[in-house]
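hey m, so remember when u said the tokens were messed up on ur end? i reran from scratch. heres the input so u can diff it against urs
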Amino acid sequence: MKGMMKTNPAKLAAAISVLALSTTFAIAQTTAQQSSPAPQSQKPTAQPQKPGSQPAPPSSLGQTNAPQKSSSPNSSKDLEAVLAQMDKSSEGFRNAQADFEWRQYQKVVDETDIQKGTIYFVRGDRDNKGKGDKDKGDKGEKGTEMAAEITVPDKKNIVFAGGDLKLYQPRIDQLTLYHAGKNAGDLESFLVLGFGSRGHELPKSFDLKFEGYESIDNIRVAKLTMTPKSQKVSNIFQRVTLWIDTARDLSLKQQFFEPSGDYRIAIYSNFRLNGKIRDDVFKIKTTSKTQTITPAQ
């Protein structure tokens, strides 16, 4: 059974690709464009807590994962050193598996929704080419693949492969399929943001500011604040902050700030690098009664 729903392809692509999202809210936002936003000046009445939700903490992170400041930024040379180290570390990156916690804060209701699970990245063949492969064509090559298995509070599966973005919700047996099409390249660039991405690719899309070194779980990380150069992207996220473990070219934490005052936080831990990843994590298992929804483009 197939259906169509209106959506903003750019917003859906950007929101899901950055991975620091609550999938439920990402889909809800794309279908609520015709609704009038709630007035910011009105204080909503108290509402019962939803499963997987909790009042927003005083700060963006709890004490367990709160970054500990270790040094301050110095000059543009420090930023260049961070980007160069990311470039070097990215050369050995093939794939990654990690546990995640995604936090979506909504200012209007002063509430934070939390999702937890496991995420998988596999760098595409085009990105893995060596110097001797420059003259080879792209025929048959695989692009970047990503899969996320959400287990808390409800089971959901997200897969990006072959230029298609899929969200499967087993509880309601519904599959949302988005064909990235001409946006596939932009989508892939966001997918690898902080996961084996080359440091000097970042200034092409963002204005960067090095905020110094901090410590997360006793790991030294470089804090980068990034302002999108694209107006289309900045309408979705005003700025993005990454806490990068430059030695492994991995983002341990990401925070995305929206114009509305909402923000999204992603915390990643228990990384497994360049190991064997099951092929079936990039394949969604549906049923004979699954409802498929394809957003209008």
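this time it looks ok to me. Helices lie at 9-17, 23-31, 76-90, 184-191, 231-234. if urs says something different then somethings off w ur setup not the seq
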